[in-house]
Amino acid sequence: MLEIKDLCWSLETGEEILKDVSLKVPDGKLTVVTGPNGGGKTSLAKLIAGLEKPQKGSICLDGEDITGWDITERAQSGIAYAFQQPVRFKGLNVRDLLELAAKRKLNEGEICELLGRVGLCANEYIDRVVDASLSGGEAKRIEIATVLAKTDSKVIVFDEPEAGIDLWSFSSLIEAFEKLKSDGNRSLLIISHQERILEISDYIAVIAAGRVSKFGTREEILGGLMNEEKAVRCPLGKDKEGNPNG
Amino acid sequence: MDKTTEELLGIVSDWSGKFNGAYNIRSNGQCAGRQSSENILIENKEGAPGLVIKIKPGTKGETVYIPACVTKGGIDDLVYNDFYVGEGADVIIVAGCGVHTDDGHDVRHNGIHRFILDKGSKVLYKEKHIGTGAGGGAKRIDPVTEIIQGEDSYLEMDTIQIGGVDRTFRKTSGTLGKGAKLVIKERILTDKEQRAETDFAVELNGEGSAADIVSRSVARGNSYQEYHSKISGNAKCKGHSECDAILADNGKVNAAPELFAGDLDAELIHEAAIGKIAGEQIIKLRTLGLTEEEAEKKIIDGFLRG
Lengths: 246, 306
What we know:
heterodimer; A: alpha/beta; Rossmann fold; four-stranded antiparallel sheet; 9 helices; disordered C terminus; B: mainly beta; twelve-stranded mixed sheet; 3 helices; 22 strands
């Protein structure tokens, strides 16, 4: 189990982004972290993957305190992280990234299966360089496929996987999440605003203003919000400017 | 051939004890083996050290190997190789070079290669360079490549300096006729106190001609690289050059691209980027479980592979 306890994180300017965040990510379940823009969701994802270091609090994986571990150590211990903005490489192709994630050579069938799970045709992408020639949606889907290829992961953190993906591919993505969820051997933590992702979740955590304002099963959270905020189209609160999310 | 020559041949020209088809092996300034084929004739050049390679019109699917190795300090090897590619031929030319010294004497190979392509011919020219040996003498490779392309011909030059070469000056020039196309992919790795200079000059003289020059380099240690390219569009043509360099340690790169448009319908583009490895690239690979050093190596290997 991934357990986050009293996590605090501030920018160098001193602005507090996360304030005493505690969260237990249940094993083998799909937990969605949602909430207003600027609430600290992506910061939390980065802290879990080791891209940022907290000023206070702890992160434990299966009872072991990994707070002081670096990015590589966390990845090797079983934490996978899908970037919100995929990284481009001049020279590395899709096969390279998938094989690095899998830590072994993959045959064409395996690559085809991975790419198919995110709605890409392997023949067109297997040797494509992951550079600026890819559209945002293509790069995003490859990013997610890369994380899926990392089979030694215990916890997979997806930071807004829906961003930049067209509707057709999004359906493939939902199927991929559902399959991962049904496998039941990895915990999924998805940062998202997307209703369809919320609908397939087991648990939902709402983060607003740097704190976990709500946590519970999907039924508890969505049902409760519906009752509380019937008049608001999107039940997940408002962003810093007071605009409803959705 | 000595053992070092065989090892270098394996690196620069995929030698595995033999070549299939036409070849000429040059070792320490001497011919160490030669074979012509029915369609590719290799002869000594008159009046100068080197070869004349004649590829018959219509030759298809053949490869000719002309690797050169210098494995003893104190040798300064100069060779002139002329390639005549007949009309409609479609061949691969492999011309790797390795220099090696185990003593304090400098070692140098200076290969001057001239390509004359007839109408509609097609050539893939592969050139791989490496320097090896623990000797303190400088390891130098100074290739000169002159390309003259006839109507609708195509030449792709894939040139890579793997490493270990202390000094190199690489001069390439091309003159293109109507509808001819030239593609150059250059990759250079320098380290320590090494120095590499590259100079490309392409004249797009024929209507519909095109050139695409892509140079990728990595400068590590205290090494220094200099890149200069000039594409001259003298007709309705298309020219593109791209210079990408990664800096590591105290590496330095000076890139000076130049475009000349001598015709209203010349379309010329240059792109250049120099900088260290993007931090986010290293982070991404580390999230897959690689260490920082492993990530850097993968990124550089991929970048140079192109």
